Task: structure prediction
Amino acid sequence: MQQHNWLVRALDLAGTSLPAIRSEVGRMLEEHDLRCGGTKPRRYLAYGVSSRLISRAAFKTGAFGGLVSAPAILPGIGTIGTLFVGITADFAYLTKQQIELCYGISAAYEVPMDEDELQATALALIGFSGSAEAVKGVAVRGLRGVVDELTQRYLETGVADSAVDMSRFLGPRFLGKAHKLIPLIGIPLSASINMTSTMMVGNQARRYFSTWDREPGVVFNAVTEKAD
Result:
């Protein structure tokens, strides 16, 4: 279990920042409402704030992914051991940011969840976003049905134990990080993959946490928004 507890630690770290996340998102909603003159429906405010959250998280994970790939271009520094330490750090950072992104979007849409349920839902959304099996399930039951089923399973098993099992499932994604070993190419590729992954999780979280049937758009592209 020890070698697979990085996701449990990511959940713990994100959990300690949950009150701060909710407070920050509350301020963002108020500021966005003021900029709109207090005339926009609640769903537009939530959509706008969640777009900013997705943009910010995407740029942060992209920048970090590029940073840990940099040693590959430095002679004498880019050893295999150093790079794989960086890959591990990148994956842990990416997952923590995506968990916190799910927390932030749930706050933007004012979804009432206790911390255990929110953690389980974040795990379900992250696992769903990288699972071909879950994508197939959506065609039959819809996004909410798949995520709700996974969330309930994680709650029944226990969030910590489920995180350990899920980290084993996510482990093969490390193999996809081998591109970091390629000098020059690894930096932009790592940044792009991290950003794409984060936007995918953010968009799925927004679809899940939204309580409205129709939103002013369903796909978010980071290049159209500026990070804070």
